[in-house]
Amino acid sequence: MDKGKRITEPGSDHAPGTVERKHEGGKSLRGLAEAYGRTYGLIQQILTEMSDARLRGRGGSLRKDG
Fold first, then answer.
1. Segment (H or E) for 15
2. Domain assignment of residue 38, given as a range
C-alpha cells in the first residue's frame, strides 16, 4: 500500500469493514498493521472508531507466581 493513500476509502481492500473482518478472522492488530504498512495505533483507531469491532483481549502466556 502506498504511503499517503487513504486506508479507509469505501470499496477499498483496506476499508474498515475489511480490516474488521480480518481481525475477527483471527489476524492480530500487529499483523494487520504489518500487512497494510500502517501503525498499530491507526489499525486500532480504525477498528474502534470507524467500525463496530470488539477488540480481543491480550493473548500470550500468563505469568505464574512462584
1. none
2. 27-54
